[in-house]
Write a structure and sequence with these properties.
Oligomer: single chain
Structural class: alpha+beta
Strand content: 15-25%
Distance between the termini: 32 Å
Number of domains: 1
Number of helices: 4
């Protein structure tokens, strides 16, 4: 991973975003009591650098992204790939967007790779990829682990 990408990733994790019209109950706090706001889903033309596993680089599929995560030799990986199942992907996406006052959109799957960004100045995080109804990846966002867990709790309605 190039130095510029590492610095940008560390900065993205270290920055706590603020949003207008936000109620305090919508967010979580870290161990120091600082309020953490979920990052907005990151959507762009190219979510991944071209990956060998993708049959169509413009439409990486769930299985291809999972394979990409598993085969990646990144030093930042810190655990097994997570795949949300059943109704959980849509519930997770709805909870995430509701907290940001964004419109709900159809989601067919969510895959996440745990990361350890501590040596970049961050901490535990997840590289989260959402897939649309057509099966194509449409958003990829790095979010702090505490936000990931809070979204799972809200989506599942239970303790995680």
């Amino acid at each position: 991973m190039c130095t510029h990408w590492r610095a940008a990733l560390a900065a993205a994790i270290a920055v706590v975003m603020s949003a207008p019209s936000v109620m305090a109950g919508d967010w979580v706090r870290d161990s120091a009591g600082n309020m953490l706001v979920p990052p907005a889903p990151s959507v762009s033309e190219q979510l991944f650098s071209p990956i060998n596993e993708a049959e169509n680089p413009a439409c990486p599929r769930k299985e291809e992204v999972i394979k990409h995560y598993i085969l990646s030799e990144s030093e930042l990986k810190s655990g097994n790939v997570k795949l949300l199942a059943g109704d959980l992907p849509q519930a997770f996406a709805d909870s995430w967007r509701a907290r940001l006052h964004m419109k709900s959109i159809p989601v067919s799957a969510i895959v996440a790779q745990p990361l350890d960004l501590s040596r970049l100045g961050g901490g535990p995080a997840f590289d989260v990829t959402e897939f649309g109804a057509n099966g194509c990846a449409f958003s990829r966002t790095v979010m702090p682990a505490i936000i990931w867990l809070e979204m799972l709790k809200a989506a599942a309605g239970v303790s995680v």
